[in-house]
Amino acid sequence: MPPVAALSDQLDQTAAIRSAIGQALAARNLKLPVLPHVAGRVMTLTQDPNADLADLSSLIHQDQSLAGNVVRIANSAAYCTGEPIVSLRQAVMQLGMTTLSEIAIAACLQGDALTAPGYERLRKEMLAHAFVSAGFAKELARCRRSNVEVAFLCGLLHTIGLPVGLATIARLGNGRVQRPGETEALGLAREFQKEIAEVVTAEWKMPREVQVVAVHHQDPEAAPAFVDETKFTALAGRLAGWFLKPDGTARETLQTLPVWAELNLYPDEVEAVFDRGRVLVASLPALTGRTA
Amino acid sequence: MSDAYDLVVIGSGPGGQKAAIQGAKAGWRVAVVERERKVGGACVYTGTIPSKTLREAALTLLAVKRSAEFLHCEMNAQTKISSLMHRLDEVLVAHGRFIRGFFKDNGVTMLHGRARLIDARTVEVQAVDGSRSRLTARHIVLATGSRPRNPPNVPVDHESILDSDSILSMQYLPRSLTVLGGGVIATEYATIFSLLGVKVTMVDPGPRPLGFLDPELVDRFLQHFTTHGGVWRGRQTVEAVSVGRLGEVVTTLVGGERLVSDKLLCALGRSANVEHLGLAEAGILQGKYGVVAVDGHYRTNVPGVYAVGDVIGPPALASTSMEQGRRAVCHALGRDPGLAFAVVPIGIYAVPEIASVGLTEAQVREKHGGVIVGRADFSEVARAHIAGNHSGMLKLLTAPDGGRLLGAHAVGEGATDLIHVGLMAILNGNDVSVFLENIFNFPTLGEAYRIAALNLRNQVASYPAAVAAVG
Question: Does the predicted TM-score (pTM) go above 0.95?
């Protein structure tokens, strides 16, 4: 990390952090935080002789950061045996309990900034959004007969730039620079979201679809490939946001977005996707162990 | 522009295309309504063309294995299916462009939306944004095709439990695949994935797959399938299918046996796409399994409304649908479509290919009081040896007089092309001697016709003995 403290007295705190993030991006020195409670549960599970692969798999599927780490490490030279791992399920099925345990532990231990202190509420919202987005992405993939497993990963990680950015801001704010407030932090995270997502998903050797979606979901038409996947993941994200934190947009307005027609989904099919929304939000506490 | 047409075709698959072009060539004002953004139907995007592309990849792999065994060529379990189908996008784009161009060149109007009959002369089109418009037509052809039939005890989620529309969305080859069904689609995918190194188990209530085909051909096919690691579980009924905690698929058979696999393909037939057509409102009768009922000219019970292709039920072949589309519009035009096709060739793109035309042994025996079967094993055909493809066979069938060719059946690579020689001989009423008295290129698979004809003729003199031998 750059010497933030040295800048603190002269620069505006937000500008200092902006500068530091820029340098961290240039140095490709970003790390994905792993949530402490998940880390603890992974540790407990892997030391429990009665735990099985299903338990670990279930846990990994529940956490955005851990999921990313598992796929990244499974694709590293130490574990990758040939073609890239493209989905969580594939990683779980192929690697087995022992290897997955190693990967999960490694994922838990590697980060020096496991949390985003001071931004817990934002982080919680982002996690909930990621899960519901993943659920919607799966539903839309089913409608389009696209790969459902990859769609889940795209939905879960398409906004990965935000939590990584937030964790980075929290780390930087730990020094002599005063930590920005939530609004400023979120603004900064959004400012760097695309660049961070590009670096993180590339370094993690995410499937090409996930990389493209994470970088281009805010402008799907600019995606160099996987345009359909980028469109429906972006739509999934929008739906997740609407269901989790209604912003006053009328349901009919969302249901008539041009993207539905671009994905060739007719009004009755759109209605069916919306009907699934309530189920997805209702299942959120079970998935994350938290309230939505 | 007016919304009044001479002909409105609903569906742009093979049957719809030929119907539209036939009408346009006659100077009719024609519109085609297609619910998908892309033209061509399931045949192009989820059926015939994608599966054959994957099949070609599997065959290429087999060829590499055969010619370079010393390299220990083997599929990596992690191989992405998309990498095996890298040419598919090009093929689909080219095909879609061709169909659109063909429609445009012939003045056919393409409309994107879901069509519904208001009455025998009016079609309502719901655009994908929900807006609606109406067309009128003197004639309507229903060519909406079919989709996979998924029974309630097989909860297709397109993730672990797939159907033939979603099977090719898989990103990587599973280690194991359970295939439910013993029909054409089940057989084709089972053999393709088996060839790619996937542990495939076919499960079906029937004693054998492809029960409508010559048993000897099916035996050859099964021998090939099981030799390459496939497992056939006939006479088995599936009680339930579920997804385990790891995403593995558990297939429970009646009797309690459980089969566990990474993925499952449900290929238990297809259902006609009739739900949105408004058949009841238009007074159109449906037949068994909900297909649109038609007569020999593909007319429904409502004058002016025709139906062709999968929506009218078997044989549900792209080739047949095209001809049905042409004939339906010829009838509407008052033109003679030519002699009704009594002989329909069947081609199954399994590995190896299976093809059949004309009568089966049982049918010849029943109609003519006996049958003589001439066989050519591909092990006797030089071209098959050269290609390393010597496990196939060709059968020719005649009545006990050894005269007119009544049936031809083949299994082995090239069978779907090879069968057309038999088709033409049957259509022309040729005697099997036509294969003995004419010249075939050498070395070709066509030589099998000579060998089979010789074998058949050699049995004629001692026919009673031959009958006994053939059974």
Answer: no
